[in-house]
Amino acid sequence: MKKLIAVRNLRLCTKDCLCLYVCPTGASDTENSVIDTTKCIGCGSCAGACPSGAISMVPLDYPPQQKKSEAVLAPAYALANAKARQEQAARQLAAAAEGDGLYRLLTAMARSVRLVNEDLLREAGYMLPQSGNAHALLQRLADEPPGPAFPTAAARSLLARLPNNDEP
Amino acid sequence: MRAICPICGYVYDDAAEGVPFASLPDSWSCPMCGAPKLMFEPEAAPAAPAAQPAAAPLADDDMQQLSAGALAALCSNLARGCEKQYKEEEAALFRQIADFYTAAAPAAEDPSLEGLAALFRADLDGGYPGLSAAAKAGGDRGTQRVCVWGEKVTNMLYALLARYQREGEAFLQDTQVWVCSVCGFVYIGGAPPELCPVCKVPAWKFDKIEGRRPA
Ligand code: SF4
Ligand code: SF4
Ligand SMILES: [Zn+2]
Fold first, then answer.
1. Residues enclosing ligand 2, CB less than 6 A?
2. What is the per-residue pLDDT for B50?
3. Minimal-distance CA residue to ligand 1 atom 2
4. Are residues A100 and A47 in the same domain?
5. Chain A residues touching residue B64 (CB < 8 angstroms)
6. Mean pLDDT score of chain B, rounded to an integer?
7. Cβ neighbours for A31, distance < 8 A, ≥ 6 positions apart
8. Ligand located closest to A45 CA
9. Is A147 in CB contact (< 8 Å) with chain B?
10. Which of A87, A110, A80 is nearest to B177 (CA)?
C-alpha cells in the first residue's frame, strides 16, 4: 500500500516541467496540472526534482493526536471563550461603525481574533480533523443537533469521510 | 539607553540614532512592525524572576464548555486543517458548521470600544499568563508557542484600539489595514511588512482589509 501521494501547489508551480520527465507513471502529466492521485505511486521523484518546491508528498494516514493535559485545557478553553466574545464585539462594532477607518480596523480585529482562536484551539486537542476529539465532537453534533438550522448532513458526511485515528 | 520592541525585537539605540528614545514623540512607532512607542521596553530590564501566575483554577464545569463562538473557531480551524491536507470538500463541510456557530453566537450587549479594550486587557493580564504557566508546567511546547504569538497579537490590537481612541479617523486616513493570514498580526501602513514580525511569514501572506465601498 502506498503511504504518500504527490500534491502540486499551483501557486508555486512555474511549469518548468521537470516533474514530467521523472514521473514513472505519468501521474504528474495532466491538462489541469492537478496530479492524478490514482496513478501516483508516491515515489517522491517529482517532489525531489521540482526546482520550485511546488510538490509536497502528503501522507495518506496521519498519526494519533497528541494528548493534552486537563491543566492546560481548562485555561485554554476559558481563553477561547474570551476570544469568541472579542470577535463578536468587534464584528458588531464594525457593523455599527460610521467612519471607514474604524470599520476597517474593527473588521481586521474580528479576523485577527478568529485566527488567534483557531491557533489556540488547534493546540488544545483539535489539530487533526482525523482525531478522536474531532470525531467525538462531530458525533455529538450529529446525534443532538444544537439547533434546527444546524447542518447535520455536513457533520454526518464528515464522519463518513474522515477516519478516526485514535480508534484502537 | 537601548529600547526593545516587544513585538518584533527591533532595538532602538540612542547612541546610534542620535536622538534619545525618551525624547521621541508619543506618536512614534516601531519602524519594523508599527508597535507604538509606549509598548517599548528598556533593554536592560532585569529579568524579574517571573512570579509564576497560578494557572486559572478549575472553578466549575463551565470553564470546560466551549461557547458557540469558540466552536465556530474550532470548526474553521479544522477546515484549515483539511485545506492543508488538500481535502477541499471536507474543508467546505467544516466551514458550513463553523458558519452555523458564527451565526448562533449570542450578540454582545452594548458593545463599546472601551469594553473591547477591557477584554483584550483581561487576556493580557490573566488569560495568557495563566495558560502560559500551565503549559510551561506541563512541558507543552505547542501551547507555549500559541501564547507567545497570541500575546503579541493581542498587545498590538490593544495598542491600535488605544491609538484610534486618541486620534480618531485621522489615524487611518490614507493608509491601509493589513492582517497576517497566519497569526492574525494587524499592521497599519501603505504596504505590508516584508516579514510578519510575529510569525515571520512573507508579505504576500497579509490580507488587505477593504472598506465598505472598495475604491
Ligand atoms: S517541476 Fe515543479 S515547477 Fe516544474 S512543472 Fe513540475 S511542479 Fe511545476
Ligand atoms: S510521486 Fe512519483 S508517481 Fe507520484 S506524481 Fe510524483 S513522480 Fe509520479
Ligand atoms: Zn504573522
1. A 6, 22-25, 27-28, 35, 40-46
2. 47
3. A50
4. no
5. 73-74, 77
6. 86
7. none
8. 2
9. yes
10. A110
Over residues A27-53, the mean pLDDT reads: 89
Q: Note the pLDDT tens digit of each residue in B46-85.
A: 545 444 444 444 444 443 589 999 999 999 999 999 998 8
Residue of B nearest to A102 (CA): B169
Residue range A131-156, pLDDT digits in tens? 888 999 999 999 999 989 999 999 99
Please report, for residues A71, B65, B166, the alpha-carbon distance to residue A134 in angstroms, rounded to integers and kept in the order given. 20, 15, 44
Which is nearest to B88 in space by CA: A55, A156, A161? Answer: A161
On whether the B174-215 domain is CATH 2.20.28.10, my answer is yes
- Domain hosting residue A55, numbered range: 4-59
Confidence of residue B214 (pLDDT cuts 50, 70, 90): low
Helices B68-84 and B88-104, packing angle to 10 deg:
170
Give which of A97, A60, A14, A103 is closest to B209, Cα–Cα: A103
Q: How far is the CA of A159 from the centre of ligand 2 (A)?
A: 30
Amino acid at position A159, single letter: L
User: In whole angstroms, what is the distance from residue A95 CA to residue B184 CA?
Assistant: 20
The architecture in CATH of the region B1-45 reads Single Sheet (2.20)
Q: Which of A42, A59, A76 is the last residue of a domain?
A: A59
